[in-house]
Design brief:
Length: 314
């Protein structure tokens, strides 16, 4: 039987440029009102979207840096890490300017770490074996610093989907090959991964979003927004509402988890700053037809070759 979680804050803030002062002010305001609580010694993994060496496809460096600055000011122990779809996180970070943005804070992008076997529990009770970053499993808080983007397979990629980067390296492609042929199973697996991680707070870079298609080849959309919440599902729902998009497969999967008894998968939201209605936009386009395709053998080989080439280039 579905139960409802207590209300959680979702903070939405206007932010119309990636100029560092404006981003710092917006991110600080959003995180202050988000319900996320850290203290001295809290181990936080900041997990941006570092899909590939293409700035529009990634969380903006100034958003990531502002989040890290906010956490460090409260005494948290911060690591920044991701597992890109193609190449290495360190190479993507250098290409988009994240390495430079983090340097004044004494931070860098952490190298790949060991994967740990985790049994994910799906809404029907089935168990699904996954390999997840040890770094992600052993922190106290994951801050999913997502980029607001359309997605050709999942309609939208937001804070919960961004957690998929906690699956290391080529294993992400293998998951696509294994579960990607069944859209509902893939969405249920992503929702179960979110649930298996330590608490996941959320920060969304919607200053310049990506629409039409995605996650890498879409077009820029001036959304002018930063959002944050202690609950990744709550922030994702608010963003979907203000974008005027239909319910994506992952939100439906979270609904199935809630119906199976995981109240945190679909919490009630309160809006201490702006509401989704006040931020509602027109013209944001999501794919009309979702492409539920797996990573076929040729694409797996291509992904592996890109990783080897990135490693050789250093």
């Amino acid at each position: 039987m579905e139960t409802r979680a207590p209300s959680v804050p979702v903070a939405l803030v206007r932010c119309h440029s990636h100029a560092p002062p404006e981003v710092r002010e917006a991110v600080t305001q959003a995180l202050d009102a988000s319900g996320i609580a850290v203290s001295r010694g809290t181990r936080v993994l900041v997990k941006p979207n570092l899909l590939m060496a293409k700035p529009l496809a990634c969380t903006h460096p100034q958003v990531v840096a502002a989040a890290c600055q906010w956490l460090l000011a409260r005494g948290a122990s911060v690591e920044v890490a991701d597992s890109p779809g193609f190449g290495r996180a360190s190479a993507v970070a250098r290409a988009i300017g994240l390495t430079e943005a983090l340097e004044p804070l004494g931070l860098g992008v952490a190298p790949p770490d060991r994967a740990v076997r985790v049994e994910l529990t799906l809404p029907d009770g089935a168990r699904l074996p996954f390999r997840v970053s040890r770094r992600a499993l052993e922190c106290d808080l994951v801050l999913s610093a997502a980029k607001v983007k359309a997605h050709s397979q999942m309609e939208l990629t937001l804070a919960v989907k961004n957690c998929f980067g906690c699956v290391p390296g080529l294993r992400k492609a293998l998951v696509h090959a294994r579960e990607g042929q069944e859209p509902d199973l893939f969405a249920d697996a992503l929702a179960a991964l979110w649930a298996a991680l330590p608490p996941v707070g959320a920060l969304a870079d919607g200053v310049t979003a990506m629409h039409v298609t995605g996650p890498s080849r879409g077009e820029p959309f001036d959304l002018g927004l930063v959002g944050a919440s202690v609950s990744a599902p709550a922030l994702d729902t608010a963003l979907r509402e203000l974008l005027g998009a239909p319910m994506p497969p992952l939100e439906a999967a979270l609904g199935r988890r809630a119906a199976a008894g995981d109240a945190a998968a679909r919490p009630d939201a309160v809006y201490p700053l702006l509401t989704p209605g006040e931020c509602r936009v027109e013209g944001f386009i999501v794919p009309a037809t979702l492409k539920h395709t797996s990573f076929r053998p040729g694409r797996l080989v291509k992904s592996l070759c890109r990783r080897v080439w990135a490693a050789l280039r250093g």
